[in-house]
């Protein structure tokens, strides 16, 4: 038996398209929510190879802490990538309320549906329309 440990599990949202076309609306033909993190990824490969294993992880990160500490709002941010993790200029942000009866799963689902699924396509569209400009580390959205 092999045990793997992921100290900071991830939830990856994957969208499949027929073909990515710049400057066009690209619709997903398939969506997947996959669990990830180094230990989880290794366990997935081991399982595919027929090796008996157990993936261990911690409820951590913002979603877990939001529920434990009574955070009132959470959400999603779309930003440009740079050399600092999550440190690039912010393009768009959107928030949702954290409800008293939320679980990590219901909160993550609401953030995906009400925030990520809305602002990510909008940010990509703005980028493809060449409407984003970074000035002094801040994103400005040019009008049409």
What do these coordinates show?
- This protein has 144 residues and is an alpha+beta fold.
- The chain contains three helices and eight strands, in the order βββαβαββαββ.
- The chain has helices at residues 38-48, 61-69, 104-128, and strands at residues 2-6, 10-17, 28-36, 53-57, 73-79, 90-97, 132-135, 138-141.
- The chain has a two-stranded parallel ribbon. Strands 2-3 form a two-stranded antiparallel sheet. A two-stranded antiparallel sheet has the order 5-6.
- The relative contact order is 0.15.
Show the helix and strand layout.
Elements: E1 2-6, E2 10-17, E3 28-36, H1 38-48, E4 53-57, H2 61-69, E5 73-79, E6 90-97, H3 104-128, E7 132-135, E8 138-141
Parallel strand pairs: 1-4
Antiparallel strand pairs: 2-3, 5-6, 7-8
């Amino acid at each position: 038996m092999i045990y793997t440990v992921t100290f900071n599990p991830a939830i990856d949202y994957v969208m499949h398209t027929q073909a990515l076309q710049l400057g066009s609306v690209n619709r997903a033909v398939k969506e997947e929510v996959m669990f990830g993190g180094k230990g989880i990824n290794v366990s997935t490969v081991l399982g595919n190879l027929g090796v008996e294993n157990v993936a261990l992880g911690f409820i951590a990160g913002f979603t877990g802490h939001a529920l434990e500490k009574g955070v009132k709002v959470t959400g999603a941010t779309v930003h440009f990538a740079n050399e600092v993790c999550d440190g690039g200029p912010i393009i768009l942000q959107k928030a949702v309320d954290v409800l008293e009866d939320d679980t990590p799963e219901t909160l993550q689902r609401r953030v995906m549906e009400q925030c990520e699924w809305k602002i990510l396509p909008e940010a990509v569209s703005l980028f493809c329309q060449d409407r984003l400009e970074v000035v002094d580390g801040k994103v400005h959205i040019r009008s049409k």
